[in-house]
Fold each of these.
Amino acid sequence: MQRTDRASKLASPVGRVLPLVLIGLLWQAASCVGLVDPSFLPSPARIGAAAYDLLAGREIRDNIFITLWRAGLGLALGSVAGVWLGLMMARSPVFRAYAAPVVGGTYSLPKSALIPLFILWFGIGTVTTVCAVFLACLLPMVVNTAQGVTSTPRVLVWGAEAFGTKPRAMLWQVYLPHALPDIFAGLRVALGFSFVLAISSEMIASTNGIGKLIFMYGENGAYDYMFAAIACVVIVAFLADRLLLMLTEKSLRWHESARGSA
Amino acid sequence: MSSAMTAKAVSQRGLFARSLTSVLVIVAIWEAAARAGLASSLFLPPFTKVIAEWWTVCADGSLPLDLVVSLSRAAVGLCLATVIGVPLGIAMARSRFLHWLFDPVIALAFPSPKIAFLPIFILWFGIYSLSKILLVAFACVFPIVIGSFAAATSVNRVLIWSAASMGTSSAGVLFRIVLPAAWPRIFAALRVALPVSLITTFTAEMVSGGGGMGATLMYSQRFFESPTVFAYILTMLGVGLLLDFLMLKLQAASAWSQPS
């Protein structure tokens, strides 16, 4: 018990932020003394000033919202389609036999490789990005949903059948709830993919979005702005991940996995 | 229930035949649609033309060269990430101080899209291989650290305590208890990191050029050489499948990996 006590003190919010603050101070000190060339690594103070400047203007907000919109749309479409496909694959062996080579084949393909293809088909812009994000999010959702549904214990199925649950209701009341923890796990992976794909496709070919903005700052030599924009991306991705974790915890309150962590 | 049982008994061969059918049908539709002129050959070159192009770029050595460049970047980056990530993960599980120090950094960096850091890596390490290798290592190190940390913390404490009480040195505990017990899950983390390394390499090459599969892919797209684009994508698909298959075999063959 003593162990958990000490661990909880270190795990307090202040204790967790402390190392980041220390690293920031060390970095600032190194820049002040002149250990690092400020044109290669701007000091945290300068990045902070640049970030303040950026946040005061509209440029970064607009571009982040464009990127978030693309990533969010692709993620939403990909997860809905992925859950449906995963469900079909788990419930119908015939469908699985037909779909498995397509899912398995494209699972290991880096989705960013398809961006040139989408540029050929849809030109440069939102459609290309959303398509790439959609495909990248689809596969983890399919695989996780299929796994969650397949692993439903027979006892649950038999129990529900004994109560006279109709096949369609079985889907909503037995299979999907049982798969929910796996679906959320897939969603977390897909969320990460959605950011990666949205930003890489903007870096490869786009006229706007945060990926393009970061590259533009880099090409113009505005390195403190580039670092500030990257820091914004890191923070937004971190917040999105935490938000999803909170949502997961809330939705799975009834599940046994929640009891351990609470 | 019984329908599922009989469906399972349809035999592997029946399922395999169906899988093969679906691939063949896709290829056939592709070929037919392209030949019938439903889509311009700029957008969708016929499958046979893609294969012919694949053979040409293989024969003139450009595709194998690109593949070697890309794979070696991914492999070096992945090795670097393993060499740093596995010891760090285990050390974090064994030392509370290291855990305290690194956990917030990892928690912040793990969900971030690593490709956003590419401009920094280009600024620091140039546009050639070094920046790409280090970006790959940077992208792969986080899943490896987290996986190794989880693996090392899940080692049964009774094993560690009993070894320690019988006078095993801490190095002995590390190499004879923790590593063997954690190995299957560490390997699982490496299997997760492998596609990450490939994706990061290809994407970095597509963004910043400098040779390799991704750079040639973008180059061909800019010049509307669609058969080459498709040939490269198919090659990437095959390489991804092959590597994942090899990792599975390796995982199964690895002497230490005995699922508990």
Amino acid sequence: MDWITDWGLTLVVFLPALGAVFMALTPKGRDSTIKFWALVFTGLPLLVGLLMLGRYQYSDGGFQFETNLRWIPSIDANYHIGVDGIALPMVMLSLLVTFLCVIYSCWHLPEPHNPKLFLALCLLLETGMTGTFVALDLVLFFIFWEVVLVPMYFIIGLWGGPRREYAAIKFFLYTFFGSVFMLLGFLALYFQSDPHTFDIVLLQQAGVLSMTKTAANLIFAGIALGLAIKVPMWPFHTWLPDAHTEAPTVGSVLLAAVLLKMGTYGFVRIAIPILPDAARTFAPFIGALAAIAIIYGALNCLAQVDLKRMIAFSSVGHMGFVMLGIATMTDVGINAAVFGMVAHGVITGMLFFIAGSIHERYHTRDIPELGGLVLKMPVMGGLLAYSAIASLGLPGLAGFWGEVTALLASYNPLEGLDLTWFRTFMVLGGIGTVLTAGYFLWMLQRVNLGKVPAQWQDKNFADAQPLELAAWVPLLALILILGVFPKLILDVTNPAVVELTQLLTR
Amino acid sequence: MQIDLIAIGPEIILTAALCGVLLLDLFLPDNRKWLAMPASFAGVLATLAAVLYIAMTHERSTLGGMFVVDSFAILFKAVFCLAALLVFTISHDYLKEDTIHQGEYYVMLLSSLLGMLVISSSRDLIAIFVALELISLPAFVLAGLRKSDLRSNEAALKFFLFGVLSTAVMLFGMSLIYGITGTTNLADIATVISVATPLRDVAILSVFFLLVGIGFKISAFPFQWWVPDTYEGSPVPVAAFLSVASKTAGFVALIQIMFVAFIQLADQWRPFLAILAVLTMTFGNLVALKQKHLVRLLAYSSIAQAGYILLPLGIASATNQSRNREAFIAATVYLLIYAFMETGAFAVAIAVGRRGRGYQISDYAGLMKQAPGLVLAMAIFLFSLAGVPPMAGWAAKFFIFRAVLNAGGIWLAIAMAVNTVIALFYYAAVAKKMVFDEPAPGKVAFGTPPLLGTAITLAAIVVVVVGILPDLFGRLAEASALF
């Protein structure tokens, strides 16, 4: 036992919030000091996270680095945190992506600048994100889940595009609406459990929950509504294209790479293992919505002219694959889902970075207006092609494994689930991958290739800058490494997933 | 009859302080009139000390059981004293910059506070009536203190007319109860009602009459019409006082009357209160959406908040004491947290309203560039009122949801959930105005006087700390439960 085992996770969660306080106390205008604090307070958690990777028992499917303290005795809520093989990749993803976002923001911030507020909000966001992934108490989970709302609201609303205010309030209201019903579901779980508890681990144990089928279905519906809005599942996705398109680059990256995963993670961590029977009832619906999302996202992408909006809709499709994997309720499917979450985080994060940097230079993101990007900026164009191809699921890059395994899993879902339906979803998903390849290649053709349009002929665009590359290289490397060695993730997730699926078949 | 002087010690000290301030004001020259504020402050501090002294000894009861100082009374006396201290701190600079007579102002506030201390201990209809009047009458005057302003006159008149009307109805109800039970003591009323079943119908009728009077104080629908106009016209610190202390006093009376005297009839009045609560929050939130004046927005939001606090009373039960206990704890925790976030929001309104800025929401445009500290505080208060963690408001709502769901009130919980989302829209709209919009030309950066700044900071700290550790208030509420 040492301090990392005992307090590492707590440090990882709260160091960024502490950093935000530090920055609030730094006088305005001293930008370099503020950037320094931001780097330190996102770098340190990442470092602690890496140290924890070294101590993690990879063959163990249970929770590690657990802390369980009394927090609000009058409502039986505890400060219970811990990670297992499902949470660990998500925690590392959020630590890494936030750190890279801070590096990127040191290079450039959109109007109205104000690095102090921007970076402080990013750090608060990090606390909310990592907290959500480590929380093992429903109340704690809810708090962290909500903590991300206010910072993201301000990030979109202050630094976003022309329709930022609309996008910001839409994001805020939509998610808040879902989470209030999620909270009611949590409370209902509490009252249905014996002894009453909010503890996620305890609630998963057999015999703790006893209720009628109807009650279980209602509670599942409430919780799933909150989670589905966050994912977002079709038809609750309408906030996403607006939020993603209007958010500043870093906001889009954080939204895509981490925030969306909070929803899918919630399904894997809470909704499905705690209410397996209700989950089995709802699985075909979730699968159907996922299949619709895949096709719908792809068709929408074909119609988009705005590069960022296209990437946003591609997220709807990718999260559809993740949800399809989860809906199968098998270990193959859930492994695929967790892998897909990491892969989508890395790839789509990268795509948003590039889209931001292109907008930065061209002051437009309209696909038809761009063209011949490779000629103007060879490195940037190459990176765009690399990430787009990773996103469409080329074997050998990260995007491939999550999607192909999810389709595989839906060929053979959990016993008792309707085979015909899930195989139909598989076919639809397969069609979706073709469409995905179609729109990404078409986008590349229009943006990267061809002649440079007349309006850009005389312009001199700086190719990718060192600080940009510094923020991107880890993601680019991960895309390749995870594509070649998917076991890096799957070996971490599998023990935990096997333990989880055992709960579903009991 | 032996009178326990220690039991009424806080009230005696406060009365002495009140007279002292009144006399002091006579002899102060005009440029020293502000000394009334430190004097009143000291008086309330001494009262608070006396309350804490009783808290550390034992519970007391005097005047034949009419006046009880139990943990319930102690908690609310302390809350009222703290609320008054906060209102004093936010009043000081406001009064100095206006033409309000400071001596009268503080004396009136102290008298109203005296009524609040008495009501916390009253276990008798007559005592409750007298205390409610003692709270209301000075408040009518306070609302009209900006004498040269027509809106202030309107505020006072509306407040007064609605006030007397509802008090009259309440008094009628009380007389009916006395007529059928032959007693005004709350506990005795409960005993008589539980035995004499034929009288129940009259008792239920009179409960509704009582609810009219109290509904006015807590601004429950449909007795809330005076609230927006009165808050808007009154001096802003008075609006803060009305929306926090006076409303809490109404709830204290309601809780005592309903839970002590008429708990046997809970099955009859419960659905009525539940519907009233849902209507109140829905009305408050929907109308708040349209507001352009910040104080009016806070007024409608405070109506909605009253609806939330009222909701747990809609699950009261004649037989299930543990359910009543939970309802009580939920309402109390909400009241405690509400006191800080609401006063805080009004304090920021005062800080911004100074120096020629107004109280229109459009006056808040671009405040971020000129007073970032105030914006941070206001965001904390507004998001707390909306119930967004980690600000304390989430815990307040959590306790209510918990109590209501435990009693099976799933539709009530859903109604409140939907209301919470509606409310977020207008709170976030103010935050948007402050942070996203550009400041209007001609508006410059400005400072906040230290006293006002301290009050705002303290309230903000309490809201955040209690949001992270809600047990601080949860324990207090548990310890002070009436049953």
Amino acid sequence: MSDFKRIIAKRKRQDLVFKLIGILCTLVGIVTLGALLVDLIADGIGRLDLGFLTSFPSRFAERAGILSSWVGTLLIMIVTAFTAVPLGVAAGVYLEEYAGKNWLTNLIEINIANLAGVPSIIYGLMALGLLVYKFRLGQSVLTGGLTLAFLILPIVIVATREALRTIPQGIRESAYALGSTKWQVVRHHLLPYSVGGTMTGIIIALSRAIGETAPLITIGALTFIAFLPPPPVQAAPPFISFDWLWSPFSVLPIQMFNWVSRPDQEFVVNAAAAGLVLILVTLSLNAIAIIIRYRVRKRIKW
Amino acid sequence: MQPAQTEPIKAEVAGLNFFYGRLQALKNINLLFPANKVAAIIGPSGCGKSTLLRCFNRIHDLYPETRYEGKIILQPSGINLIGAETDPLEMRMRMSMVFQKPNAFPKSIFENVAFGLRLRGVKGRELLDQVEKSLRLAALWDEVKDRLKQSAFTLSGGQQQRLCIARALATEPEMLLFDEPTSALDPIATSKIEDLIFDLKSRVTVIIVTHNMQQAARVSDFTAFMYLGELIEVSPTRKMFENPSNKLTEDYITGHFG
Amino acid sequence: MKDLPMIEQSAALAADISVQPPAAGASARARRLSRVKERIIESILLLAALSSVAITLGIVGILIYESSTFFAHVSLRAFLTDTLWTPLFASPRFGIMPLVAGTLVTTAVALAVALPIGTIVAIYLSEFAPAVVREVLKPALELLSAVPTVVYGYFALQFMSPLLQKLIPGLPTFNMLSAGAVMGIMIIPYVSSLSEDAMRAVPMALREGAYALGANRIITALKVVYPSALSGIVASYILAISRAIGETMIVAIAAGMQPNLTFDPREPAATITAFIVQVSLGDLPHGSIGYQSIFAAGLTLFVMTLAFNILGYVLRKRFREAY
């Protein structure tokens, strides 16, 4: 029996030791996140002011700002959202509600799974060869937006499918039993009920796109741009212009990359400030997504 | 209604109440388990028979919001199995359990049986001998002696369950707890295991929970009938099935409800 | 579930009868119109789904097309075996090995961090942590993967590198160790979240079998749960490898952009991805050999990640079928 006691004591020690190791390892990630935020704030908060947000980049660190970059990010996101959301949701609806079990569906699903794992820079290469040169779209906002749209497409498709899957089969059956066509079921029932989950996925996808740097550098986004693209809305007719789509651009992460890569240390402060803006935007978007998911789960309980 | 007082007692359940959170699953159970006998616990679904069994090796402790009241005194050591001061890990070293669905580990046949032994520090020659002995006791040795290194999943369902029995026997437990051990098996495998249980009682005290009354009648020395968390009647098996004292017991046994 | 065939047949019948009330004819037409509309909508949705195939074709097509012109000038043998990568020099050399080495070393450092830590975290969250702790820590860790990689690059250069320089005397500012370490931390949630899901999917009955024999938590976790969840866990490892190989910004910022054939992580080096970024930052004439070299490099990268993605996909399917 004393043998038992010795063994049991050893086992309990093992459990305790591992628990400590487990907590420590979990803390590695969280402490790093904290250190990262503290580092950025310490380095950059001083630089973060209205002037920073409204100035163009400059050779002089204290005058350089992110105006052109965040405008560029905004315009790119408009193109990305307008492309990826309809395309992704439509594809998700097709795969979940219309597709049969055949080789074509398998092909599509394998493609999506594969695309999700392709490095982002490869999308940039494709866009460079195909969109910039072959299709002559140039190194423009349109190209940039399309590139990121293709990048986040798998995420939107998966989010749509998962959201549709949470709707019980009974809802579909009762709608059909009332004489609805398939599209009517989708349009009047499935899409409205799944909008919360889909929205969450879309927001997370967009927050991912905002942080993307490599593909946009590859297609030739500028790293120093001291002008703004032409505005989409004008005072004179025809009031809405699409010139901005063809304009060269820069984005916030590229601006940060540019500043961080400089050998002169004075730009580090700017880089940190830009990083703070970036993190603020991405974390807020993630937070919004989580809140939406929480509200939706509370409202609709199947 | 209880077994004769002259027989040595292995375990005494006194005033046992058990709670899942607010729900009381066992109500004031008082029961004696004589040593080296097979006791069957029968009753309809939800009566608490598995819950009672799982008190013996404190498996409930793995789940949140479970609470015991009362005592289960193990003889001859006099330990209260469910006492707050008793270590669940130690209790599990003294008991062994065989579950409803065979849950062989994803390891070789040998390693499955050796698992409990290795936990207790058994090694080398002694380990090999114990594994062989347990497999013989479980009537599985002849079928597996040439393929001990193969995965346990190459065995049939009935063989896997006998492997789990061998695994449970290897650690020489004070009590062997069977939780509906044959409900997932075909009749031939079932009958092999029932013969096994009958043979084992000379070595160890057995409690078997079963929803199959005929099995209880075939295999056990005395039977306890439970209903809705209460112990309704306990008698020597013969008497329970031929001449039950309680009307509820009689109704269950004759199939008026189930 | 398609349209009910009965409605169609009766509509057709109604259309055939020579004398028919105008209402029946109108509703038959309406039904046929609605059917056409449904078909059109389905086709549009199918086209949207096929866009994914189109994108894959676009990627593969462009990579092969541009690389083929590259390989017209450079022999495959030289590409794979030469030890210098200097495509922009006057007398250029086109050996991909330095870039592959850079990619592999940074990946190895990242995995050395992410795999052990991620696995331990997964075991802890799945087998040890109370539910409340798990619900808080798991999303907190997933935040790690929400941070833009350029910010990680900044962190690697400005924080991790000076820190490591204190521990390792003589460490250059740009080195594969800092970049790899930060990359590893970023990848932890890829390993921990998926491995934890795999372990939680292992049925409780298997654990009970071990506990009932007197096992403690860590032995049950290591000897019963981990082996049972292995294909899901390995799928998460493969995902981590693929992610590390394809990472660009962290290595571009912190590991340096000089191709350097070495396996010493304390040295700076360029990965395949960093090289592509470096060239894109400059001004290369379209169609020049330098321009094409990034596609050749990209093709190499694509093949590497494709191999791992296929492996991971197969393993994940097996893991889902097991339960």
